């Protein structure tokens, strides 16, 4: 399942998404980085957190969500 | 074999047409719908537009679709409405209605997928005199024959037309007062439609969705859509 979410996150890299995880959390942000285990998003519509919070990789890419915890990703798109 | 339309049905995408629901609402405002208006929503999908018309304008709404999954979703949505929307499992190529029944007919990304002469003939038949046909349909500006074939074969378009060709078809089937506007998908702002990829979506459907993204990227500049309105 992680491979599926890895592929989906890579495909929609740079887009704003809503990620639903199996703990009931909903994360809204722009996909900035994807690793085989995690997707990193920068939250949108929120003020920047100063100084601490996201750790080294998160400093650039936002915060990470385990791909294994994802149950759904909402995107926007154009359809015919 | 799973098709692009099956994916739209499986994802339950509301407003699965270019411009999305925002464009639909804008068009409906221009239509001046009254409570006495009889409106047919062709290819109603999940029933979002028909529900909105019924609730917002209190009009008499009839909706048709042929996809079993879409019909199921539309039926569920209509069941909770205070004003009924009449849902039929029917194709626009053979409408199960007497002649001159509707004041307006709405086709949101439908006519590209059907046999156009049959559909336009049927729409003309069931429209009241001076009734209006409104359409939002795929259109292109510049594509080679091979590119057109590739796009049409993936989306299962029966025809992929330029705005001029759409206009000619409408005119040939007796419609007049044709107004048509072409929009490129690269133009901003293009309202987009939310959809959710779940863990249960099959690999085959995911592959179709990926192919759709690829087609949008590859042909985004040449492939757009047109909005038209015309009268019987």
UniProtKB/TrEMBL annotation, chain A:
<keyword id="KW-0472">Membrane</keyword>
<keyword id="KW-0812">Transmembrane</keyword>
<protein>
    <submittedName>
        <fullName>Uncharacterized protein</fullName>
    </submittedName>
</protein>
<feature type="transmembrane region" description="Helical">
    <location>
        <begin position="57"/>
        <end position="79"/>
    </location>
</feature>
<keyword id="KW-1133">Transmembrane helix</keyword>
Automatic annotation (TrEMBL), chain B:
<feature type="domain" description="Methyltransferase type 11">
    <location>
        <begin position="40"/>
        <end position="134"/>
    </location>
</feature>
<keyword id="KW-0489">Methyltransferase</keyword>
<dbReference type="GO" id="GO:0032259">
    <property type="term" value="P:methylation"/>
</dbReference>
<dbReference type="InterPro" id="IPR029063">
    <property type="entry name" value="SAM-dependent_MTases_sf"/>
</dbReference>
<dbReference type="Pfam" id="PF08241">
    <property type="entry name" value="Methyltransf_11"/>
</dbReference>
<dbReference type="GO" id="GO:0008757">
    <property type="term" value="F:S-adenosylmethionine-dependent methyltransferase activity"/>
</dbReference>
<comment type="pathway">
    <text>Phospholipid metabolism.</text>
</comment>
<keyword id="KW-0808">Transferase</keyword>
<dbReference type="InterPro" id="IPR013216">
    <property type="entry name" value="Methyltransf_11"/>
</dbReference>
<protein>
    <submittedName>
        <fullName>SAM-dependent methyltransferase</fullName>
    </submittedName>
</protein>
<comment type="pathway">
    <text>Lipid metabolism.</text>
</comment>
């Amino acid at each position: 399942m992680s491979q599926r979410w890895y592929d989906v996150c890579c495909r929609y890299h740079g887009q704003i998404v809503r990620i639903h995880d199996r703990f009931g959390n909903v994360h809204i942000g722009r996909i900035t980085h994807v690793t085989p285990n995690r997707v990193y998003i920068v939250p949108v519509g929120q003020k920047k957190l100063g100084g601490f919070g996201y750790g080294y990789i998160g400093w650039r890419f936002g915060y990470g969500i385990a791909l294994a915890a994802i149950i759904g990703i909402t995107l926007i798109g154009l359809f015919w | 074999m799973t098709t692009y339309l099956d994916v739209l049905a499986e994802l339950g995408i509301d407003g699965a047409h270019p411009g999305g629901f925002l464009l639909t609402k804008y068009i409906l405002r221009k239509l001046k719908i009254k409570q006495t208006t009889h409106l047919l929503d062709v290819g109603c999908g999940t029933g979002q537009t028909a529900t909105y018309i019924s609730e917002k304008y209190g009009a008499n709404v009839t909706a048709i679709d042929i996809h079993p999954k879409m019909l199921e979703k539309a039926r569920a949505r209509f069941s909770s409405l205070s004003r009924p929307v009449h849902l039929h499992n029917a194709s626009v190529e053979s409408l199960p209605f007497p002649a001159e029944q509707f004041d307006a007919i709405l086709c949101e990304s439908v006519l590209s997928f059907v046999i156009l002469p049959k559909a336009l003939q049927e729409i003309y038949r069931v429209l009241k005199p001076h009734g209006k046909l409104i359409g939002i349909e795929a259109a292109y500006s510049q594509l080679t024959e091979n590119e057109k074939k590739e796009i049409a074969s993936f989306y299962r378009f029966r025809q992929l037309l330029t705005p001029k060709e759409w206009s000619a078809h409408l005119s040939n089937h007796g419609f007049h007062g044709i107004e048509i506007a072409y929009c490129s998908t690269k133009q901003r702002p293009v309202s987009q439609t939310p959809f959710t990829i779940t863990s249960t979506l099959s690999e085959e459907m995911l592959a179709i969705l990926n192919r759709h993204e690829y087609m949008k990227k590859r042909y985004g500049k040449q492939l757009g859509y047109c909005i038209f309105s015309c009268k019987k």
